[in-house]
Amino acid sequence: MHRPFVDLLDRNLDHAAAFTDRFDDVQDAQHPPVVTVCCSDSRVLQDHIWGNDTPGQLFTCGNIGNRVVDRTAAGDVVSGDVLYPIVHTGTETVVVVGHTGCGAVTAAYDDLTDGIDEPPGIERCLDLLEPQLEAGVDALPDGLDRAAAIDRLVEYNVDRQVDFLVESDEVPAEVEVVGVVYDFQDVYSGQRGEVHVINVDGERDPDALRATHPDIESRIERLWTY
C-alpha cells in the first residue's frame, strides 16, 4: 500500500473524531444553499477555499475546466452534476470557480492553436470545453505572454459557463449564478488564495457589478473586460 494513502487514512481518523456530531442534521436529506463547480485540480481545495467545515452546506462538483455543459444526443445540456442539487435539493446559488494557471484551459488553448494529442477520456473533456473558448482565443489582446493569455481565457471560460446556466431553461430564473476566479499565483491584487468575483448572472462589467453589489465591491476584479 502506497504510503500517501495510508497517511490519508490516518488523517481521516482525526476528521471522524472532529465531525462525529456534525452529521446529525443531514442524516435523511440535504439542502445545500450553494453548489460550486470547481476545476479538478489538486491546488484548489473545494471546501477549504471557503473555510467550510459544515456537512450539507456546499454541494461540490469538480471536473477539468469547471464545466457546466454536457453533451447528449439531443444537444448540449446542463450537466447533471450541477442540475441535481438545483432540481432536487432546492439549491438557489451556483458558483462557477475558475482558477489562475488552469491546466484544462491551457490544454484547450494549445489544442485550438497548435493541436495536441491526449487520451480519449481527456480528449472528450477538451471537446466539451473548447467550443466555449474558441472565440476567446481569437479575441485575445495582442502582446500577451502565454501565462497572461491563459489567465484571461480562464475568465472567458467562467463567463461562458455562467452564460450557459443563465440561458438554460433547465435552471430556474430565481437561481443566482456567480462566476469567480481563485488566485494562488499572485495574478490579481489580493493575497494568494483569494476568490475574485468576475460575473453575476451574466453581468461582467466590474463597475456595474460594484454598483449592484456594494456589499462585495472589494472582491470584484477582472483582468479582461472585452
Strand portion, in percent? 15-25%
* CATH T-level topology: Beta-carbonic Anhydrase, Chain A
Total domain count: 1
- The percent of residues in helical segments reads 25-40%
Low-pLDDT segments: none
Oligomer: single chain
Cofactor: Zn(2+)
Enzyme class: lyase
Catalytic activity: hydrogencarbonate + H(+) = CO2 + H2O
Pfam families: Pro_CA (PF00484)
Q: What brief labels describe this structure?
A:
Beta-carbonic Anhydrase, Chain A; 226 residues; single chain; alpha/beta; five-stranded mixed β-sheet; two-stranded antiparallel sheet
Account of the 3D structure:
The protein has 226 residues and is of the alpha/beta class. It has a single domain, classed as Carbonic anhydrase (Beta-carbonic Anhydrase, Chain A, 3-Layer(aba) Sandwich). The protein contains six helices and seven strands; from the N terminus they run H-E-E-E-E-H-E-H-H-H-E-E-H. The protein has a five-stranded mixed beta sheet, covered by helices on one side. Strands 3-4 form a two-stranded antiparallel ribbon. Helix 3 packs across helix 4 and helix 4 packs across helix 5. Its cofactor is Zn(2+). It catalyses: hydrogencarbonate + H(+) = CO2 + H2O. InterPro entries: Carbonic_anhydrase (IPR001765), Carbonic_anhydrase_sf (IPR036874). This is carbonic anhydrase.
